[in-house]
Write a structure and sequence with these properties.
This protein has about 350 residues and is α+β, with helices and mostly antiparallel strands. The protein has eight helices and 15 strands.
């Protein structure tokens, strides 16, 4: 038996040596492969993408982003959404249908707090095509008749809106979807380490250029319409996760001494007025994180926490004000280990 064991060991040693040498070579290759950094404009905002790869993929990245814009942009007159809003019936691609179905799923899950038909109200309050206009209550009540995800039906490869004048707005999910699309492109290139950020919506994989997990800051919700301050509330370890933040502390205007924020409640027709200032959501897909972050801003603290209790796969970091006006933080218990600095 002893001789047999010795023979087996002698046969195993070369394989172990090869395994060790191969591992060393892989590590050396990973360390020598540079990180590329691309940035630019898309969807009316900025993007920043960092990834470890031997080639610059910016042209491919921008081609993928253009495909998303050509489907979901309200401001691209030739996009699928723009054509739908003009009453046309373009044939829909499978990925458009997937995003539509995801939006519908979130709408049903949040009892309509998330609603892609809210566009007429967004425009009326000056956060779409128009700027800083104050609709009357009668105008709001009239426009509310055009709101309702349940009035939009998918039949085969076509969408039908049941009420004339309805409009679709995917802006609360399209950025997150764009992040997912770029991440999928990088994964097709077998890239293991990357960070994709579009307008604050993020997904990460692997490690950063410093060879440590990716760490992303959550901004303190200071009123900053010009986006000039970047004071951090906390820093999160979001490696291998997607993250999206929604808040009313930047996109707002003040009229007659009153603040009007861009998050519109589809049910009331008015900008939301509650204590929740910022909702950061972590999920496996950025489109999901994006949609729920918006939903939470509509629902407020109680509604957000109720959703989170039903969806353990989601994590959230919520910033709100107490009765004295002080900033207070609530976060999912499962998020505790990801908080690097608080």
């Amino acid at each position: 038996m002893t001789n047999n064991r010795q023979k087996r060991l002698l046969w195993q040693i070369p394989f172990l040596v090869l395994l060790i040498v191969g591992t060393i070579l892989i590590i050396r290759q990973q360390r020598s492969t540079p990180y590329q950094k691309n940035s630019g404009m898309t969807f009316g905002t900025t993007y920043h993408i960092t990834y470890q790869y031997s080639e610059d993929l910016q042209d491919e990245i921008e081609a993928e982003l253009k495909k998303v814009d050509d489907k979901f942009s309200m401001f691209n007159s030739q996009s699928v959404v723009a054509r739908l809003n003009k009453g046309q019936k373009p044939e829909l691609s499978s990925d458009f249908i997937d995003v539509f179905k995801l939006a519908r799923q979130v709408s049903e899950d949040t009892n309509g707090a998330f609603d892609i038909t809210v566009a007429p109200l967004v425009n009326a309050w000056g956060f779409g095509f128009k700027h800083e206009q104050m609709p009357t209550k009668e105008q709001v009540d009239s426009l509310r008749q055009l709101i309702g995800y349940q009035y939009v039906t998918l039949q085969g490869n076509h969408i039908t809106m049941q009420k004339p004048g309805m409009m679709l707005d995917f802006s609360a999910i399209a950025k997150g979807y764009g992040v997912d699309v770029v991440a999928q492109l990088l994964e097709r290139h077998d890239i293991k380490n990357f960070m994709v950020e579009i307008g604050g919506e993020i997904i990460t994989r692997g490690i950063n250029p410093e060879r440590v997990p990716w760490k992303i800051g959550v901004n303190k919700p200071n009123e900053d319409a010009l986006n000039e301050t970047h004071e951090l509330q906390t820093i999160l370890n979001v490696t291998d996760k997607a993250m999206a933040t929604s808040g009313n502390y930047r996109n707002f205007y003040i009229k007659e001494g009153k603040k009007f924020a861009h998050t519109i409640d589809p049910k009331t027709g008015f900008p939301v007025q509650h204590t929740l200032l910022s909702a950061t959501v972590l999920a496996n897909r950025c489109a999901i994180a994006d949609a729920y972050a918006t939903s939470f801003m509509v629902m407020g603290m109680d509604g957000a926490i109720e959703i989170l209790e039903r969806h353990k796969e989601l994590m959230a970091y919520l910033i709100y004000t107490d009765k004295k006006g002080n900033l207070v933080v609530w976060y999912s218990p499962s998020l505790k280990d990801k908080i690097v600095k608080d």
